[in-house]
Amino acid sequence: MKKETKKKIVSGFNQILIFLGIFIAITWWQQKDMLPTSSSLRAPNFSLVDMTDNVVHFNPSEQTQKTLVYFFAPWCSVCHISIDNIESIKQSSDGKINFYAVALDWKSKQEVETFLAEHDLTMPILLGTNETLNDFKIGGFPSYYVIDSNGILQSKDMGYTTEIGMRVRLGLVEL
User: b/e for 106-128, b at 16 or more Cβ within 10 A?
Assistant: First the structure.
């Protein structure tokens, strides 16, 4: 192999390492204020109204299966892209996982309905409050928490995630 070719390969590899380092640093920075995932921290309880004005209660100590809680804002363009990934996962999970989508930072129920009109969703859509935002330490949209069957925070993420990335976090795909 020529010396120039080796230099280009090394340079490309170094650029990939720099990109990965920056990506990891940004991801850490985005998630640093979210609730920690650990072997003992239970997810917060909530009682929120759904889009048909029914109250939905979530108590992690009563969990019997894994749950994904997806927090979105109706004005968030990334949320428009990622919520369809979540719905696709829900459709294929055969009811083995609970799914909740929680609207935050909304001004009116109509604003949330306008967002939902662009998506064919079957998961419960809940109207979150400032208390919900604070309890789950949501600092950006979309944000996700995976909660295990014991109510323990297992995984978290903020920003766009691919469908395969979320399937891995939910344990639906093994690497």
Answer: beeeeebeebbeeeebebbbbbb
